[in-house]
Design a protein that fits this description.
single chain, 392 residues, alpha/beta, Aminopeptidase, 2 domains, 4-stranded antiparallel sheet, 15 strands, binds glyoxylic acid, binds manganese (II) ion
Length: 392
């Protein structure tokens, strides 16, 4: 493991599961912000935190900068590499180049994007989406976490000004972005290469389905008399699996909340979060439409109701062709698509963007089991260094 990953290995780690719980504006996130700031300072880089909580460490300043970096936050019980590998590799590439006396022809910056996973407030890539303007500040700021705390309140509690949230001027100074990330899949295992280059990201989104019924006594209420929202939810999970298999898409319910949550009470509400992804936008929208139609029918049949909330939708991404080809040729690396979302996908709408993936022997991610071998991490740093040398 790269040394700096060891330095933050204990931050936000649940001792029971070994997974990370690094959620935006939480205690672990604040420690990681301090760590990032000290890494910047140790290298003499200028530290900036923008109004969205994104941190940037600048080597030089001015227009046409080459941006590197990734994110430090995690999903609940995430792995050590998803996000942090990109940041420590970026700092390591900067170290190698400066040790060689390399003088970049353009400014270089390392970014730590806030809230990439959206684990706390539900919106994926919130920090980068606010920066590009893809996400409207008022909508982000009103999002609530599981305890009912809004993003605005969480920021204010950490001394940040919610009025500063929104498009940022630094983006105009970025000429290209390269994000290194652990692979979330096994394409590189199959191609036998430690490092690959991204071609595309599948369109994906998150929807909340609130199945609403009526709470009542589990023993005293006849089965015929119930308005129980749980069976419609269960039907919807099975339908999601069927529809996704039929269309070659992905559909996941990874989070649910049941109200009031008593073993001996019929629920009044089941809220379920759907994560759906597909090879193209038409397939994704058809999957969600068909699923919601089935869910509504199942809810109506039980005298219950379904309310749908779209939490975030990310369009298909095709990374910049010339940049992708140049990097693939420089590194002689395979090119692969991914079903995972990234800040690079968000920035690609405004800036030529590329991604490097580092081999993951099991392909497992969003889990404490996520892993990359030290040699492959080192190959990632070497690859990123070569990319920076070529582009800067
Ligand atoms: C981010 O990792 C995502 O794909 O949800
Ligand atoms: Mn992730
Ligand atoms: Mn990630």
């Amino acid at each position: 493991m790269i040394e700096s990953l060891d330095a933050i290995a204990g931050v936000g780690r649940d001792p029971g599961t070994g997974g990370y719980r690094r959620h935006v504006w939480g205690d672990a996130d604040m420690l990681l912000r301090e760590w990032f700031a000290s890494e910047a300072t140790a290298r003499g880089m200028d530290l900036v935190e923008d109004g969205n909580g994104n941190q940037l460490a600048w080597w030089g300043s001015g227009p046409d900068a080459l941006l590197l970096g990734s994110h430090l936050d995690s999903v609940p019980d995430g792995g050590a590499y998803d996000g942090p590998l990109g940041i420590v590799s970026s700092f390591a590439a900067v170290d190698r180049l400066s040790a060689e006396g390399f003088e970049p022809s353009r400014p270089i910056a390392v970014a730590s994007f806030a809230d990439e996973e959206g684990a706390r407030f539900g919106i994926a890539c919130a920090g980068s989406q606010l920066t590009t303007g893809a996400l409207v500040p008022a909508r982000a700021l009103a999002q609530k976490d599981r305890d009912g705390v809004t993003m605005a309140e969480a920021m204010a509690a950490r001394g940040r000004d919610p009025r500063a949230v929104g498009r940022t001027s630094w983006l105009a100074d970025v000429g290209a972005f390269v994000e290194l990330h652990v692979e979330q899949g096994r394409s590189l295992v199959h191609s036998g290469a430690p490092v690959g280059v991204a071609s595309a990201i599948w369109p994906h989104g998150r929807w909340r389905l609130d199945f609403c019924g009526e709470a009542n006594h589990a023993g005293a209420t006849r089965m015929e008399d119930r308005r129980d929202p749980m069976p419609a939810y269960a039907t919807t999970v099975l339908a999601a699996r069927r529809l996704a298999i039929e269309t070659g898409a992905r559909a996941t319910f990874g989070r649910i909340e049941v109200e009031p949550g008593g073993t001996n009470a019929i629920p009044s509400r089941v809220s379920a979060w759907l994560d759906a992804r597909a090879g193209d936008e038409k397939d994704l929208s058809r999957l969600v439409t068909d699923l919601v139609t089935e869910a509504r029918a199942a809810a109506a049949a039980d005298g219950t109701a379904l309310h749908l909330v779209t939490e975030s939708v990310s369009p298909a991404v095709r990374f910049d062709g010339p940049l992708r080809d140049r990097i693939a040729a420089t590194l002689d690396a395979p090119v692969l698509a991914t079903g995972a979302g990234h800040d690079a996908g968000v920035l690609s709408a405004q800036v030529p963007t590329a991604m490097l993936f580092v081999r993951n022997p099991t392909g497992v991610s969003h889990s404490p089991e996520e892993h990359a071998e030290d040699d492959d991490c080192a190959a990632g740093v070497t690859a990123l260094t070569e990319v920076v040398r070529d582009l800067a």
